[in-house]
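Course assignment 3, question 2. Fill in each field.
Student: A.L.
Task: Predict the tertiary structure for the chain below.
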Amino acid sequence: MQKLQSQFLEQRLIDFLSSCSWLPGYAFPQDIVKLKVLDAEFSKKMRLERDREVGISEYAPGAEIIADGKLFTSAGVEFKGQPDVRWWISCRECRRIETGRITDEPPVACTICGTSFLGACEPRNYIRPDGFTTSMEDPPTMPKLSRLRPPRTSEVFLLEGVDPDSFVESKVSGITYGIKKGGKLFRANSGRNFDSFLLCPICGKH
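Answer field:
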């Protein structure tokens, strides 16, 4: 029990709430991504889709998916029209996430705590994929004894925090809390070993 208690205390609250499906956006997924299977034998009888939080990892380029007794490999990202490329950067001190369009200049310091980003935190580009796809050049195969584990996604970050003046005292001594309505969460997939993904801007192939 002590070990279990220690594991819970070491977790960030927002990570714990999302992992146990307490947050509404995760308990009732409405934002889903699909893996489009291009092989004609399987494309019509398969519907591979996951909520976006899991899908950006399970269906990421290079990931292996077992379905209907076959092994499929994700080959790229699907997007409609020109991809909207943006950047994100995380403050190592207060953990605030800053995001912006690729045409915007990233800040040199955190807008909340003032920690410098120079030489320590580099902005990383990202897109919001409409889905993922296999390749006609890579037909499904028989599953192996094991499959390549999908790359891990980042932690869950709250993009817009609560105004400091909105915090109130809780019934637990020393604990204050604030409620943010309509807050936005951010999660990214930086690739295996954080080496990112190199994607074709036209077809989305990895």
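Instructor remarks: Residues 87 and 125 are 4 Å apart (CA to CA). The longest strand covers residues 32-36.
Grade: pending
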